[in-house]
Specification:
Radius of gyration: 24 Å
Number of helices: 7
Oligomer: single chain
Helix content: 25-40%
Largest sheet: 9 strands, antiparallel
Strand content: 15-25%
Low-confidence stretches: 210-216
Number of strands: 9
Structural class: alpha+beta
Order of helices and strands: HHEHEEEEHEEHEEHH
Distance between the termini: 16 Å
Amino acid sequence: MASVKSSFDEVKAAYQKMRTNLLIVLLIILAALIIGWFSPRLSLIPTAAAAVVWLKVYRPGVKAYASLATEKNLEQTVGKRLYNATITEKGGSSLTAAMVRNAELLPIVEKAEVLCFWQVAGSRRRIPVVTSDATAPLSLSRPDGKKSGTYLSGAWTRAELPKDTGADLRFIDRGAGVAGDTWYEEQGLQEIASESCPDAFLMLGRESGEDDSKPADGSVPKGFYEALQVLKEKTEGDVLVSLRGKELNVFIGNRFITYRIRTNRPPEEGQISYDPFPEYDQVLALAEAAAGEKTAK
């Protein structure tokens, strides 16, 4: 993995190229104004040229700069915590809409598109992990029995555990807007009493035998509850967790692995290493606890 300094040098070079393209546009516009003073008709030529450079060169350069800055930041933050991390801006296959739906964690509108941006895939202690910013359209239940639509965005992490936990459980942050939604009951999920589960969460599962699931409290690996409590304490977002067999899905609402890159000011070296999602350490710790063992990275 590249150092912070070398990554910053790449980002700085992209910024300077972007600014140079802007200067070219401004010079062409200035030429158009000067020519227009003498011949309005001839000024149309540099004006058209300025428009072409703006649309075909400058605007793509702005997007390229922002993408590069985000990618280099992810390498030094989320990617640094994973082995053999790969970063994909759009269209990544490591986390798909079908995977998000299969977690049965949110009342997502049927057949609606789930958007996953900036996927970072790798492994943590030999556990395959993918993390992405995600946005999903939800259909929430109202007191009058009707449904209301909204969008929910946040950081989604999916981990493939080395062995089947035998669990089919959801842990819903009591402060989340989806807590208590009738959608969970419609999926056959019911609240399960547990002295071990942190008070901040509703623990949901299915009765033994339905869908061959075993939501017994004992199916949760040792240390999982402790890791869940620490994660809740370390983040400002609402935490929702799905533990189904060999799959662990963790969604933290309104928390993101990326942040807005400002294109109207020069980059600083500190923005390359700035971590907008420090609680990712606790998310990975939860995956390790779900795996039930500590294996070499």
